[in-house]
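Lab meeting, action items carried over

1. Structure of the two-component assembly. Owner: GW. Status: complete.
Input record:
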Amino acid sequence: MNLAEFLLLLFAGLGLFFIGVKLIGSHLSQMAGRGFRKWILRLVDTSWSASLLGILFGAITQSTNAVTFIVSSIITAGLVPVRVATPVVIWANLGTSALVLLAAVHLRLFVLTLLGVIGLCYFFNIEKSGRYRHVAAALLGVALLFLGLDFIKQGVAPLRELQGVRDLLGLAAQSYGLVFMLGAGLALVAQSSATVTVVAVTMTKMGLLSMDLTLMAIYGAGLGSALSLWFMIANSAGLARQLGYIQIFLKAVSALLMVLLFSLECGLDVPLIKAMITHLSANPSLQGAWAYLLMQLLGCLVVTVWFGPLYRLALRTSPTTLEETLSKPQYLYEEALDDAETALDLVEKEQLRQLERLQHYLSGQDRRASASVTENDESVGIHAANKSVTAEIGEFLTVLMDRTQDRETLNRMLNFQARNRLLADLQDGLFSLNELLCPGRADDKTEAVAHGIVEGVDFLVLTLLDALKSQDEQDRALFLKMTADQSEVMERIRRKLLLSSERSAKMHEALFRASSLYERMVWLLRQYCLLCTSIP
Amino acid sequence: MQLEIIRADDTVTHLTLTGRLDLAGVQNIEIAFLGHTAARGKPVLADLSGVEYMSSLGLRMLLGAFHALKRKGQTLRLFRPQTPVRETLHLAGLDELLAKSDDVNTALPSLG
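Predicted assembly:
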């Protein structure tokens, strides 16, 4: 192989490594269903078990972002308080050391076997089954990640023989600061200190980096990872930002403390980290891995000790958002699952609450006095929160169905599931309708038609709510009569739109789409009312 | 928003609404409107020719009166709405509330 081929091997290895990291993180995040979260909930009842769970999660996912995502979803769903779940996020940092430790040992046979097994899984279509899809994809991620590392090792091997590389390393050896900044820069780009550490450890193994330089690259990567997270959370708010601040503090403080310890050890000749990792292993690449682990451990311990003030500061800097508040179901809780009838009553209340929220979607001229007036950018977040509660109701019903044998109760559950699907469709439809017709997007010429549609659908939502709350058969019958057939009205409106030449083509299209959406909204509201009428 | 009573006797309540039936408008006249319609319990002919804008809350107020009158065996008819308001009433499925004629002499006797 010539030099270009080695460089391409290195490049491909990095590519495979990144694909692996992404596959693991994204597929493990998608495994965070209700059953998975319930399993977590059982384990986070003490701070010790939460910390152990965090280490395990960090080791499996190799991504503190993936762990943060899973934990955020549990906290946002109101299943566990922030204080109880945060140790999982903190200690996941330590778990990420597993990759670095594994990369320091020879894993080629393991990787080849794993790839073969996963290939067979794909051949037999096991990856298409809903149950194992994410497991298979995450395992593929693990295999690709380690295969990538193997490529990197092969690609790096001839580099140490090159004069240019030797000169560069010789130059770097004169400045720890340069290597530190290089590590920080790479981690900033790769968004992972573990990734940079693995590459640094691999280079140490191939004899390209001395131990001192490797340590500085690792510590720099720690700080770079903190900086990368700082940029990542710039547009987030609420809980995500709170957890982000805690993580940034952890990463930055651990990296800076390690640099301080390194300086003391070199300057004063006091046996500290270097002495410890030399004692732990004679293998240079394992020594790098141990240094990374110690850096994470130090950060976790500091944050654990200072958690109270740190959390208060994070909460003050980034208060809980409206979206997070709205994402919490009010009536659903785990214990209710033990009694199907009670659980269904609670589902009904939660669905009614969601139905009430539909009136907040439309930015007509006339907003309810009780409804919070929202800006357009906020409406996206509120829609996401509503969808999240609807999804939560759906999962609650699925778990309930698994536990129920009674035919009549099962029929009731199916009815509630159908209502939930309608709710989700109504949320999407009203969101789209608002996007099309909200003030500022429609011009004066479209205003009259837009008003009719917005006020009409808003009125039907209110009327359905009144009918469901009153539980009066006459109210429901009247609502069903009102929503019986809108096709003639809509046809007339569309004909009028076609005849009008005053509007732009874009507005024409928007109004046509809005009229179709309106028809669909009326149909969905009617179906919802019919479902509520069909069971006692 | 203004409400004016044209006629209120034992056989009918004939009133006109003028202005915008939006949140402020509804808050302005709702109690008076329901008092003259639902509470009186006589057939109602509401002239909407002066109503420039109809919101969902306005529609809800009209439906509330219609519903209350229906329970008492009476009815509410909306009369001469402007085209945009008529369109909104159609879209809301409230065609039933619209008077068959735009002529007051024809509309009034049909209430009985």
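2. GW to write a short summary for the group page. Key points so far: Chain B has one domain: 2-106. The mean pLDDT of chain B is 90.
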